[in-house]
């Protein structure tokens, strides 16, 4: 895809590795952003003197970012994070993300790594023992909260210098939120989901997922300009679930009952049951897509087709036809970025 920012070669941190960048070997796979991954060999497991590599998990609201990767004259997730680390350690750092996200795409958990050399501020040139991860998390969050507060470090771990956040990732999970209903979208949901005024047929969408999950040529779900050599991917999971809309506050009838069926909930949210100033709630459907890697914009193109099935504009046979067409022109319009969330990046940690 990316569900991730422009996959053209980055002008930021991904274009320059450390001076000890090891030799490259044959490319074996492509990453989620449509760029080919490179496996590395010859990496020394002996840390460079005084330098500690940290694995950093972050969450962010993507609305005010021009994507995750650093770009000139644009506010980006990496740019804001590097600035916070600079203020903490007193020197510039380079941050490398596991997954690149487009403008407007959010992250419940993206992961990056950063190399930090702790230098004494009282005695310049004196190298001190590395900071504990908890200290890094607390200090960096202190500076992040002074810069809009739309990025937060959620976890930090010390890792060997040969552990790369992008190339060591084993699996990525994305979520996509759709809010269905004729009412205008709540201010609290602005830029957090795709508003679909029509009613969505959940069982039909779930049946469409069964056609798309698995090992396929996903050329029909690959945006123009994707740099991956192969359109073949294994989609380990693709499903649609209905969940409570958020933020969720129980009505007086719900507070008086331990549990409600979906039918009960619909009954309570009719116009006659709502008091003055009370909004009718939307249905919230979440598409989950999980794979080792994705093509450029693959998830948003998949969601576009699933939404069309949900509204009745496409049938299951149409989905099969689109998949077999092997051209993106056969697919439905791509879903907007605002509903997409990078949910989890899986590793086998040392």
UniProtKB/TrEMBL annotation:
Composition bias type Basic and acidic residues, residue spans: 18-34
Catalysed reactions listed for this entry: uridine(38/39/40) in tRNA = pseudouridine(38/39/40) in tRNA
Entry superkingdom: Eukaryota
SUPFAM superfamilies: Pseudouridine synthase (SSF55120)
Region entry Disordered, spans: 1-44
EC top class, as a word: isomerase
Signal peptide extent: none
One GO biological process term: tRNA pseudouridine synthesis
Keywords, in A-Z order: Isomerase, tRNA processing
Documented EC number(s): 5.4.99.12
Domain spans labelled Rhodanese: 147-318
UniProt GO MF annotations: RNA binding; tRNA pseudouridine(38-40) synthase activity
Family matches, as InterPro entries: PsdUridine_synth_cat_dom_sf (IPR020103), PsdUridine_synth_TruA (IPR001406), PsdUridine_synth_TruA_a/b_dom (IPR020097), PsdUridine_synth_TruA_C (IPR020095), Rhodanese-like_dom (IPR001763), TruA/RsuA/RluB/E/F_N (IPR020094)
Similarity comment text for this entry: Belongs to the tRNA pseudouridine synthase TruA family.
HAMAP family: TruA
Name of the protein in question: tRNA pseudouridine synthase
């Amino acid at each position: 895809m990316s569900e991730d920012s422009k996959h053209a070669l980055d002008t930021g941190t991904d274009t320059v590795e450390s001076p000890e960048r090891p030799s490259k070997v044959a490319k074996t796979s492509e990453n989620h952003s449509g760029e080919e991954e490179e496996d590395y060999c010859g990496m020394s497991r002996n840390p460079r003197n005084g330098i500690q590599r940290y694995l950093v998990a972050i969450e962010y609201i993507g609305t005010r970012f021009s994507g995750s990767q650093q770009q000139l004259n644009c506010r980006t997730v990496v740019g804001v994070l590097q600035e916070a680390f600079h203020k903490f350690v007193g020197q510039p750092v380079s941050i490398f993300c596991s997954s690149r996200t487009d403008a407007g795409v959010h992250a419940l958990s993206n992961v990056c790594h950063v190399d930090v050399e702790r230098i004494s501020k009282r005695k310049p040139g004196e190298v001190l023992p590395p900071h504990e991860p908890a200290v890094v998390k607390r200090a960096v969050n202190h500076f992040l909260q002074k810069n809009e507060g739309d990025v937060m470090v959620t976890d930090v771990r010390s890792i060997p210098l040969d552990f790369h956040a992008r190339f060591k990732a084993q699996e990525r999970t994305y979520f996509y939120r759709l809010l269905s209903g004729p009412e205008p979208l709540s201010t609290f949901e602005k830029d957090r989901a795709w508003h679909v005024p029509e009613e969505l047929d959940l069982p039909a969408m779930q049946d469409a997922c069964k056609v798309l999950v698995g090992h396929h040529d996903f050329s029909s779900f690959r945006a123009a300009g994707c740099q991956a050599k192969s359109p073949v991917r294994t989609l380990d999971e693709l499903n649609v679930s209905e969940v409570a809309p958020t933020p969720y506050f129980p009505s007086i009838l719900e507070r008086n009952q331990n549990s409600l069926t979906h039918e009960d909930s619909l009954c309570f949210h009719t116009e006659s049951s709502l008091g003055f100033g009370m909004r009718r709630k939307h249905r919230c459907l979440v598409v989950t897509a999980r794979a080792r890697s994705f093509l450029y914009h693959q998830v948003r193109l998949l969601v576009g087709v699933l939404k069309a099935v949900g509204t009745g504009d496409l049938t299951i046979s149409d989905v099969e036809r689109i998949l077999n067409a092997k051209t993106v022109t056969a697919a439905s319009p791509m879903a907007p970025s605002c509903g997409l969330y990078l949910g989890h990046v899986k590793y086998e940690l040392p």
